[in-house]
Design brief:
- The complex is a heterodimer.
- By secondary structure, chain A is mostly helical.
- Chain A starts with a helix and ends in an 8-residue tail after the last helix.
- Chain A is 75% helix and 0% strand.
- Chain A has 13 helices and no strands.
- By secondary structure, chain B is α+β, with helices and mostly antiparallel strands.
- Helices cover 34% and strands 23% of the residues of chain B.
- In chain B, strands 1, 8, 9, 10, 11, 12, 13, 14, 15, 16, 17 and 18 form a twelve-stranded mixed β-sheet that branches.
- In chain B, a hairpin with a 3-residue loop joins β8 and β9.
- In chain B, α4 packs across α5, α11 runs antiparallel to α13 and α12 runs antiparallel to α14.
- The radius of gyration of chain B is 27 Å and the shape is globular.
- Classes of the chains: A mainly alpha, B alpha+beta.
- At the A-B interface, α2, α3, α5, α7 and α9 of A face α1, α2, β1, α5 and β10 of B.
Chain lengths: 337, 540
């Protein structure tokens, strides 16, 4: 398996090189002029030129690119002008925030969608099946920012059950000492139960928002794949042998139906990272998506390039992970590239 | 990883997806800090804690204002509606203990017990270094200093450890007020120099992340894009000790959430909500709302007078008669603005700015003027606006488009993203657009130098050139410096009249700064920079 992983990593190199070049060119093709934007409300032409020279944007494009690649080789992603921080630092602190939210959203979604899909498949055209259809259609049709705002309106504004939508922690808590960057895990490591509870409370609504959005593909895929497996010979044999229905469904059928579900999970995870952008905006979540959007609005090149590159690396890693999981779940699928 | 083990663990995870209960380690220390903490929510936060930095944004100015002292500042006065408003012509000593204005220089003695936040005393050396920095680093700070004829390090002379003299380059009424804006902040020079390098002689990198002043607050934690936490500096001697111990400033991008936070009582202050929200909050009476007009600020419709058809005065007048002024006031601003139109026909011009012009919506007159100008069937053009302020700009432009269509001017609306807006303005090719300008220094001639003078600054977006107007502006500047009140008033009235006769830009209204706070928060002050001054705020 190690050989397979090494091979896959080698294949990823050209795509990463491509991403570096394309993200560089695309950001330069943006219509905005960062020098004019950052020169302030009352800048003269000379002030703008001074800032352009300071940012190194007065140099020809190929020189800028050589400098960028040189910095990249040293692990320097440049500085963000909108937040004033090094991009590498920003991504390091913001990625865990996004990842924590996305993973929790995915778990919420799985916890609802997988059982729902299984039940729907065991009783096709029953009430549960229709419910599954309605919930997943509604979930995918509602835009995330809308679901988010509705949830805030009901659970925070009207009922007062949820905490204020103010990011990862209530104002009066300080974040736990940094270990993984995941507040839930870090607070447990530090033994700060109060912080754990506070950050979990902050996570509930945004994770639910993301979860609702991701229900549809997981539930539908689980249902379809379960239907196919339940109709197969070995399930009939198992049933004929008198195994308990639960054993048949969970132990035999579900395990065999997992392959397409895992593929979907990978896909869902990646599009959740995208949907995150809006959820982060709504819940003032200091994640990587809102960072990228702010950078885009300000034509801030360095963070955009850093964001695209990080996402590319994550996609490569995710695809690799899924391929490895294939081999584990189903021995028949041994991917020798 | 074995297949069976993996499958088992997945099943176990699915089965046990109940989260572990939190260990019960509760503390009670949080309650009292809530009373001493003020929570501010706004759309965006600072990108730099140093106003001298490259591209420091407007929220960054707020940090600088509260964490650094200047030699002098302004007194406060109370407006008829009870709002505290800065007194343009009355200075208050902040770091200075004494100010002695001579003919061609001003001498400041520093407060003897003034110390920086690390405990080192504030000396004249620090003041000189800071002012040198402001006029040397380039970009916005240098430019702002120049607006008050402060351009050379030689102008700042250390007399002794405790005394600094600022020499005037020429007589300029704006020199003294310019020493009270945010830019001439006084830095702890030894501390910053310790972190300076050959490449960065002014220590911009250090000051970007750390506050190094003597001000009333210091930044204890800054998480760019999400949170700034400031704590009171108990060694501050620049004024009466502030009441609020801790300021937590959170960035909440969604306006709806900022409003919800205010209404639920979780946030204490917010000041960038849509006008509609402010009106509704005002009506609900749950919160204290303060609306104050921007000092020296106007939202306007500009026309490029260099190219046809707007090079024709009659066309510009026709447009001025076709703007739906009142509709904009009602439907876009919900009344939260001061009208800059429709002055009575016999109203005399006054020596003040901003003041309303005499145009009103009159479609028939507009049509007639357009016909006289040789465009009886109108023409086609584009109407541009900055998407960064789409909340106001978009409905404003749609209403204007509708109204102009009635006289045959067909506009295509051109939405320009915030990042590109200034670049586009700088090119000076937009035929018709809306924009807002406001100056820190509240003097009519200051506004006109930027917006109308023939030296064609970026804000003379119309490319308007008039020798006559330039002479009047220059005359007013000279008269102000010499203290010749009669000549000054004559020139100010002169340039206002001429600007309204030639109408290269059509003033619409003076926007309001709207601040919403909890009823138990008081002490809000309006400053020329329109940001919050934490030093006067009181909670409870």
């Amino acid at each position: 398996m190690l050989r397979m992983i090494a091979k896959r990593m080698l294949i990823a190199v050209p795509s990463l090189v491509g991403v570096v070049i394309v993200s560089f060119l695309l950001t330069r093709a943006l219509p905005g002029d960062p020098a004019a934007y950052f020169a302030g409300p009352a800048a003269t032409k000379e002030a703008i030129e001074q800032i352009r020279a300071k940012l190194g944007l007065d140099k020809p494009l190929y020189l800028q690119f050589i400098r960028y690649v040189g910095d990249l080789a040293r692990g320097d992603l440049g500085d963000s002008l909108t937040t004033g921080q090094p991009v590498a630092h920003e991504i390091k602190t913001r990625l865990p925030a996004s990842a924590e939210l996305t993973l929790l959203g995915l778990i919420v979604s799985m916890a609802i969608a997988v059982p729902l899909g299984i039940v729907a498949a065991t009783r096709p055209n029953s009430l549960v099946d229709h419910l599954c259809r309605v919930i997943s259609t509604a979930g995918v049709s509602l835009p995330v920012f809308f679901t988010g705002l509705i949830l805030i309106y009901v659970f925070y504004y009207l009922l007062g059950w949820a905490p204020a939508p103010l990011g990862r922690l209530d104002v009066f808590f300080s974040p736990p000492p940094h270990v993984t960057g995941f507040y839930l895990i870090d607070s447990l490591i530090a033994g700060e139960g109060e912080v754990f509870a506070a950050s979990l409370k902050q996570l509930v609504l945004p994770a639910l928002t993301l979860g609702i959005f991701a229900l549809a593909p997981i539930a539908r895929m689980t249902r379809a794949s379960m239907l196919a497996v339940l109709a197969s010979d070995f399930v009939r044999t198992a049933r004929a042998s008198g195994l308990a229905p639960l054993t048949v469904v969970v132990t035999y059928a579900f395990r065999n139906a997992m392959l397409p579900v895992v593929t979907t999970l990978g896909m869902v995870f990646s599009f959740l990272l995208g949907a995150n952008v809006l959820v982060e905006k709504v819940f003032a979540w200091p994640g990587i998506g809102s960072f990228a959007v702010e950078a885009l609005i300000a034509s801030d090149f360095a963070p955009l390039q850093g964001f695209v590159l990080t996402m590319a690396v994550m996609y490569v890693a995710l695809n690799l992970l899924i391929d490895v999981l294939y081999g584990v779940i189903d021995p028949r699928v041994r991917l020798e590239a | 990883m074995k297949r069976r083990e993996f499958l088992k663990s997945v099943t176990a995870l699915a089965a046990g997806s109940v989260l572990p209960a939190a260990p019960a380690v509760w503390s009670t220390a949080k309650a009292q800090s809530r009373q001493e903490t003020l929570l501010i929510v706004s759309e965006s936060g600072p990108n730099n804690l140093d106003i001298h930095g490259v591209g420091t944004n407007v929220p960054g100015y707020e940090v600088s204002w509260n964490c650094y002292d200047r030699l002098i500042s302004h007194e406060m006065k109370t407006l008829p509606n009870g709002t505290q408003y800065y007194e343009r012509d009355k200075f208050k000593l902040e770091l200075a203990d004494d100010m002695n204005i001579g003919d061609m220089s001003v001498t400041f003695k520093l407060k003897k017990n003034a110390v920086f936040q690390d405990g080192t005393p504030v000396t004249a050396k620090d003041v000189k270094w800071s002012l040198d920095r402001a006029v040397t680093v380039g970009g916005f700070p240098t430019f702002q200093m120049g607006a008050g004829s402060l351009t050379k390090p030689e102008q700042f002379v250390v007399v002794d450890d405790n005394t600094i003299r600022v020499d005037f380059l020429r007589k300029d009424r704006l020199t003294l007020p310019d020493l009270a804006v945010i830019v001439p902040a006084i830095y702890n020079s030894e501390l910053v120099k310790k972190h300076a390098s050959e490449k960065d002689p002014w220590g911009l990198e250090y000051a970007k992340q750390n506050t190094a002043g003597s001000g009333a607050y210091r930044v204890v934690s800054w998480n760019a894009g999400s949170e700034v936490i400031l704590e009171r500096n108990d060694k501050w001697i620049g004024g009466p000790p502030p009441k609020v111990r801790r300021i937590v400033w959170r960035m909440v991008p969604s306006a709806g959430n900022r409003r919800a936070l205010l209404e639920r009582g979780d946030a204490d202050i917010s000041y960038d909500l849509p006008n509609k929200d402010f009106v509704e909050l005002k009506d609900s009476g749950k919160l204290a709302i303060v609306s104050t007009p921007y000092s020296n600020g106007i939202q306007y419709i500009g026309m490029n007078v260099k190219t046809p058809p707007f090079d024709n005065l009659k066309v510009r007048q026709a447009v001025a008669y076709a703007i739906p002024y009142q509709k904009i006031m009602d439907a876009v601003l919900f009344g939260l603005a001061a009208p800059m139109f429709g002055a009575a026909a016999d109203a005399p011009t006054v020596a003040a700015w901003p003041q309303p012009h005499k145009y009103n919506t009159d479609i028939a007159k507009a049509k007639a003027l357009l016909a006289e100008a040789g465009y009886p069937n109108g023409f086609e053009t584009t109407l541009s606006f900055d998407l960064g302020f789409a909340g106001v700009n978009e409905p404003l432009c749609v209403l204007t488009q509708e109204s102009l269509a009635q006289i045959g001017i067909k506009c295509t609306i051109n939405k320009i993203p915030g990042a590109t807006w200034r670049t586009e303005l700088n090119k000076k090719v937009l035929p018709l657009y809306t924009n807002v300008f406001s100056g820190w220094l509240d003097y009519p001639e200051y506004f006109f130098i930027w917006c109308y003078h023939g030296k064609n600054s970026i804000f003379n977006t119309m490319s308007y050139q008039s020798k006559e107007l330039d002479a009047l502006i220059d005359g007013a500047v000279t008269a102000a410096a010499e203290g010749d009140k009669a000549a000054y008033e004559k020139d100010v009235k002169g340039f206002v009249d001429l600007a309204y006769a030639d109408m290269p830009r059509i003033p619409l209204y003076q926007p309001f700064v709207n601040v919403a706070m909890q009823k138990n928060v008081s002490g809000y002050q309006y400053w020329f920079h329109r940001r919050l001054d934490y030093r006067a705020l009181v909670k409870g």
